[in-house]
Amino acid sequence: MKRGKMIYFIGGTKFREFKYFEILNKLREKNPNISESFFDAELKEDENFLQKISINSIFSSQELVVLKRSQKIKKFETFLKNIANLDIINKQIIIDYEKEDGKLNAELKKTLDNLEKDKKIKNFLFLKDEDIEIQNYVMLELKINKKNASSLLEMIGTNPFKVKNEIEKIKIFLGGENFDLKKLKNIISIEKEYKIYEITKEILSNRINEVMKYLEQTKEYMGVLYSLYNELEVLYKIKILKKEGKQFSSNYNTFKIQFEKVKEAFKTNNRIPNSYAIFKKLELEKNYSLESLKKLVYRSWKVENSIKTGKIEMSAGVETLIMQIYSLYKKK
Predict the structure, then answer these.
(1) CB-based burial label for 107 (10 Å; 0-12, 13-18, 19+)
(2) For the segment 189-203, what is each residue's pLDDT rounded down to a tens digit?
């Protein structure tokens, strides 16, 4: 490799963004005065990118040159080989390649492997949406443990740019103080899905005072209905498994082992949920009988069907379902 030259290829799903942020920050920290140029292949700027990296001067300082959305380039393998073989001096190059399904074609994968083997490029591939990548980023930036990172991500979602912005906001807010998730609720942008999750939990915990006000303000009737339907189905499955003699510990480490034996029962859309998500349902399942959950699952389906066929209005159907859930809650 030529003096001062490094090519980083970052490809795959949305989680590649965190490696992109990491490399950017490291290069900026190592070279505070580095000049930066950004190009976008979707805007047909790949020729400008090539021109930029082709111009050399032995007296030039370090440069950072970034090409975003390189997946838009035709005959990309040839394009990549040409870049790797250029006589480049004092440039740090980042090539970003988005592929949300994580499936790189065989020719590209072979090209990347060969170029890395020849030490002409450094590859970072993210071919699956794995929470570990985003968790590591949050843990590193905020110096918190995995549990706190997971809880925070539940609230803000996993969009890379949003996570980065929220992390920066949190760091400024904390100002060096210890991480406190309860205090952060007032300054972070909570995902709509998480708010609906919280409302659903309130309903199933027999706390509905604020629920009706939320529904009246947001009109999120169908979102809450779908969430309730899903939660009630999970609670019903847990109750059936318990009736069949399955044991579920209140200790999460023990529960994880038990969950492995029954996880197929919770599969939906060909995906098995995280064990911790099911573990958190145990505190809700005990509040209802098997017969009550059976009725409520059927009632949820009936309400959804009646709304979609125009037999009842959304607000009336969902509010009636909530009151039925309230009536079947086991009073302490």
Answers:
(1) exposed
(2) 787 888 888 899 999
